[in-house]
Amino acid sequence: xxxxxxxxxxxxxxxxxxxxxxxxxxxxxxxxxxxxxxxxxxxxxxxxxxxxxxxxxxxxxxxxxxxxxxxxxxxxxxxxxxxxxxxxxxxxxxxxxxxxxxxxxxxxxxxxxxxxxxxxxxxxxxxxxxxxxxxxxxxxxxxxxxxxxxxxxxxxxxxxxxxxx
Length: 165
Description:
82% helix, mainly alpha, 6 helices, two-stranded antiparallel ribbon, elongated
């Protein structure tokens, strides 16, 4: 009995550390999305990443006999479900589509849970930093390009109206 409890407490500590690491790597992305949009943010991203990590930790112990195909099916189901959540974040307003960065980054938060569950902390850290960098520093560039496109579109429309008169 004491051997069983020691095994559970050892696994519990390792699993708890992985869940905390997953949260820590996801939180900056969640904070960025919370500030940028109200579609998804501080609650959704960590919930997705931690749940994905926990599901894969459970799958690893359940399919501990080396059944890689069973674990692959679990990962496939998780990614499909996250895609469904991300799809709900994408909205069309007039001729603009919004929420694609949130949809892509919610998928990334799931990938963070996967990489941490498999012990790939190096990959998880790089993924978190690159995602945060893209969301933080490429957003102003995207806005500048969008404003330029809108100005050109307005100019073309004004030219068409003046030439048809």
